[in-house]
């Protein structure tokens, strides 16, 4: 059982989300006004579903604000289909997105995948390419400097680093990290890698190589 917050300006969509996720035993709170979320205590939630196109404050802006205070997965619900818009959304701190209209089976599976990822037990510490991975704390250190990765960015780095030297496709990375198989959703990996590289370059690390037509490799 998880505590889930769903934010969308359409009451009908919120009702559908609540009924679907309550079938899996989750406690679902719904909010129609993004401004209200700014005043809420968000640390109690295990996952947040966040609509992109809302009046007042849009989902991208709200995500950037709350990501500073919450550590749980944030998944966008969006009718926006332009890839550059979706990729920009991931850059705001979200972990994933689901395009509207979505099937209830997809919604439930995607939520379960993110919750399972949060429950994975991490104990080891390992070093590779001059970086130290602390798997329980989900952080990467370069000497005494912490690399400011989001949870999803950390998981991608960890997966690539644990398989260093191997070329992995976007689909393989997406399924391994998020636990949900889907070709279109693997495009999110491209933007995550872009953000990861920018952060690693700041600590003088460039371990991720693009293998054109195939995927990525951690060297």
TrEMBL record:
The keyword Ligase does not apply. Residues 123-219 form the OmpR/PhoB-type domain. InterPro entries: CheY-like_superfamily, OmpR/PhoB-type_DNA-bd, Sig_transdc_resp-reg_receiver, WalR-like, WH-like_DNA-bd_sf. Keywords: DNA-binding, Phosphoprotein, Transcription, Transcription regulation, Two-component regulatory system. The modification 4-aspartylphosphate is found at residue 51. Residues 3-115 form the Response regulatory domain. May play the central regulatory role in sporulation. It may be an element of the effector pathway responsible for the activation of sporulation genes in response to nutritional stress. Spo0A may act in concert with spo0H (a sigma factor) to control the expression of some genes that are critical to the sporulation process. This is Stage 0 sporulation protein A homolog. It comes from Faecalimonas umbilicata.
């Amino acid at each position: 059982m998880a505590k889930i917050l769903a934010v969308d300006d359409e009451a009908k969509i919120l009702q559908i989300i609540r009924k679907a996720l309550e079938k899996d035993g989750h406690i679902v709170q719904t909010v129609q006004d993004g401004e209200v979320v700014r005043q809420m205590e968000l640390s109690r939630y295990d996952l947040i579903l966040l609509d992109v196109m809302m009046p007042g404050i849009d989902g991208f802006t709200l995500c950037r604000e709350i990501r500073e205070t919450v550590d749980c997965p944030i998944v966008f619900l969006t009718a926006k289909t332009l890839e550059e818009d979706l990729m920009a959304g991931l850059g705001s701190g979200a972990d994933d997105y689901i395009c509207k209209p979505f099937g209830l089976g997809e919604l439930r599976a995607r939520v379960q995948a993110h919750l399972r990822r949060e429950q994975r037990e991490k104990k080891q510490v390992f070093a590779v390419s001059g970086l130290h991975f602390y798997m329980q704390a989900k952080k990467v250190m370069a000497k005494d400097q912490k690399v400011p990765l989001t949870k999803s960015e950390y998981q991608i780095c960890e997966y690539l680093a644990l398989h260093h030297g191997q070329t992995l496709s976007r689909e393989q990375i997406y399924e391994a990290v998020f636990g949900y198989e889907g070709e279109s959703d693997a495009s999110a990996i491209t933007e995550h890698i872009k953000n990861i590289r920018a952060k690693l370059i700041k600590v003088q690390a460039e371990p991720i190589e693009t293998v054109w037509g195939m995927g990525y490799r951690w060297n």
